[in-house]
Amino acid sequence: MPENTEIPDTNLLSGQGKDAFDDNALQVFRYQYQQTPVYRAFCNALHIDPQTIKSLTDIPFLPISFFKTHRVIASTKQPSLIFESSGTTGEIPSRHFVTDETVYTRSLLSGFSEFYGDPAGYAVLALLPSYLERKNASLVHMAKTLMDRSGHPANGFYINEWGKLASVLTQLEQTGTKTLLLGVTFALLDFAAQHPLQLKHTVVMETGGMKGRREEMTRAEVHAELSRLFGLADVHSEYGMTELLSQAYATSKGIFRCSNTMKILVRDLNDPLEVNLTGNGCLNIVDLANINSCSFIATDDLGVVRQDGSFDVVGRSDHSDLRGCSLMTVY
Questions:
Q1: pLDDT by residue (tens digit) across 187-207?
Q2: Which domain covers residue 126, as residue numbers?
Q3: Is residue 175 part of a domain?
Q4: Which residues fall within 8 angstroms of residue 305, CB to CB, at 6 or more apart?
């Protein structure tokens, strides 16, 4: 592929079938090998010949930590938007350079609509303490994009105005308004404990994040507690991160399914270059919306990927799967 070749994004957000997704992913791989210097250096360090890559499991996956230490962006592009992770004190944050916000918006709205319908049919309330208190949080941008599409007058962000949030939710419930309450886990638990409500028209979606604010709980325990306090049959979850432009959603029992620009694979715990379509291990993500960054990311999350492409997230790795590979010294 010539170095100045552009990938048309017209196919990236439309392919529903396996073959369409896989073909697009291989096309994106060849483009990013040419255009994203750090990814090309990573592949070269592994002695990867791009011509030998014929399937998803052949594609090299960039360790997610590279977003902390390198500028992961196509050399011909400039960022129009930067997402930055929170990290802990003294930790280097991840930075995701987004060159085309419209691709992100299309991916988000298309993916959300797959699972929930048009956001224009919802009031969107976001309980995002800590995220609202810093700049460049991708979760805040996600919520704002959904609110912009929704246009409902009750839309709003909340940090700790729990009384006001409870009042707004009560009013929306009384009018039978479909509502999305999007929140970080610790904040939803704290809010629900102070303001238990019977929610019949509201989707409660937790995005993860205890951040040392509470004793750690499993996702099942979190969902059981929120279901009890809100009178819900199911609590929903969103799986996304600073380094991604696509999301996965769990609408029941904590089982995630990907939007149509995203696919989860699994890598062996002892061999980070052994990648499979299903099984147990560390999660690798293909995100076609990351067109001018890197669409192939090896995360630190542990999980299970099923035959139908659904997956569970069960914990975090300790980086032992990357030891001895010298992957961090390639560029």
A1: 999 999 999 999 999 999 999
A2: 102-250
A3: yes
A4: 264, 265, 266, 276, 277, 278, 279, 283, 311
